Amino acid sequence: MEVRLKILYTSLCHTDVYFWEAKGQNPLFPRIYGHEAGGIVESVGEGVTDLEPGDHVLPIFTGECKECAHCKSEESNMCDLLRINTDRGVMLSDGKSRFSIKGQPIYHFLGTSTFSEYTVVHVGCVAKINPLAPLDKVCVISCGISTGLGAMVNVAKPPKGSTVAVFGLGAVGLSAAEGARIAGASRIIGVDLNPNRFQEAKKFGVTEFVNPKDHNKPVQEVIAEMTNGGVDRSVECTGNVDAMISAFECVHDGWGVAVLVGVPHKDAVFKTHPINLLNERTLKGTFFGNYKPRSDIPSVVEKYMNKELEVEKFITHQVPFSEINKAFDYMLKGEGLRCIIRMEE
Ligand SMILES: [Zn+2]
Ligand SMILES: [Zn+2]
């Protein structure tokens, strides 16, 4: 059930940097990072029937076995067998790595390890896409873009003409804003502590900006005043628990829905008064935009192909693989959104 991929383009996502820094987790080294990518199937292993050499694919950091209760549920994408596992550095079938150096294993990362010219991935973590889609663009759909987009269009589901707030204007938050634009929201309020992000965010349909630092009251109160009682939908993409609470408390009573996307600190606790829920506000969370990797991601690529979804505006840098460290520099400095790394010079 394994597939060997020739990676053509990959990009750097914040999760790679987080695990590379190995802060607060069990370090597992040496390891090949990378999980946002596009490539071509080079060969397939025993048991693989729905992919063949030459297929254009996006490897995905979480999977879809198509057989477990989650995969059979229309509501879930949390596959029992292949859901994200940040600690596992080996393949499921035999508990071994497919990479080595001088006889010593090099571990996998998120089942993808795309900072490599070739990688081996479980078939359940491979989305087969339209071969006409340019891989140097659609590779960004394999992680961050789908996470934010899906949180908005699949989970928050803003009605046409609604007012939406997005907390955190990095790549994930801006893809949530892109989802709100596609859904026809009329006001998109961006919330971020970094005013430099506001200019960029206008390209993604963000119409108004709130910097919590500019106000001496909670940001949920500021937003409630701006919107006559609260927004219709909010999506939180920072992982900061105070931002999560604000994102929930800024939705309108009666119908407002808040969706949590950012990954919080392991000791964080979400506190709010239960009356906020009794007053008919809904709090939800989502993982990978509720998309099933194999069944749904090809259709996100089609949204790009039919010009509904714009991905070019997320791509701010490009480097050859030999200069991959520049991509880390851009991310650490907070410059740009996505840096595409091309495997061939
Ligand atoms: Zn990612
Ligand atoms: Zn499954």
From TrEMBL:
<dbReference type="InterPro" id="IPR013154">
    <property type="entry name" value="ADH-like_N"/>
</dbReference>
<protein>
    <recommendedName>
        <fullName>alcohol dehydrogenase</fullName>
        <ecNumber>1.1.1.1</ecNumber>
    </recommendedName>
</protein>
<dbReference type="InterPro" id="IPR036291">
    <property type="entry name" value="NAD(P)-bd_dom_sf"/>
</dbReference>
<dbReference type="InterPro" id="IPR011032">
    <property type="entry name" value="GroES-like_sf"/>
</dbReference>
<feature type="domain" description="Alcohol dehydrogenase-like N-terminal">
    <location>
        <begin position="2"/>
        <end position="129"/>
    </location>
</feature>
<keyword id="KW-0963">Cytoplasm</keyword>
<dbReference type="GO" id="GO:0008270">
    <property type="term" value="F:zinc ion binding"/>
</dbReference>
<dbReference type="Pfam" id="PF00107">
    <property type="entry name" value="ADH_zinc_N"/>
</dbReference>
<comment type="similarity">
    <text>Belongs to the zinc-containing alcohol dehydrogenase family.</text>
</comment>
<dbReference type="GO" id="GO:0004022">
    <property type="term" value="F:alcohol dehydrogenase (NAD+) activity"/>
</dbReference>
<keyword id="KW-0520">NAD</keyword>
<dbReference type="InterPro" id="IPR002328">
    <property type="entry name" value="ADH_Zn_CS"/>
</dbReference>
<comment type="subunit">
    <text>Homodimer.</text>
</comment>
<dbReference type="InterPro" id="IPR013149">
    <property type="entry name" value="ADH-like_C"/>
</dbReference>
<feature type="domain" description="Alcohol dehydrogenase-like C-terminal">
    <location>
        <begin position="171"/>
        <end position="302"/>
    </location>
</feature>
<keyword id="KW-0862">Zinc</keyword>
<keyword id="KW-0479">Metal-binding</keyword>
<keyword id="KW-0560">Oxidoreductase</keyword>
<dbReference type="Pfam" id="PF08240">
    <property type="entry name" value="ADH_N"/>
</dbReference>
<dbReference type="GO" id="GO:0005737">
    <property type="term" value="C:cytoplasm"/>
</dbReference>
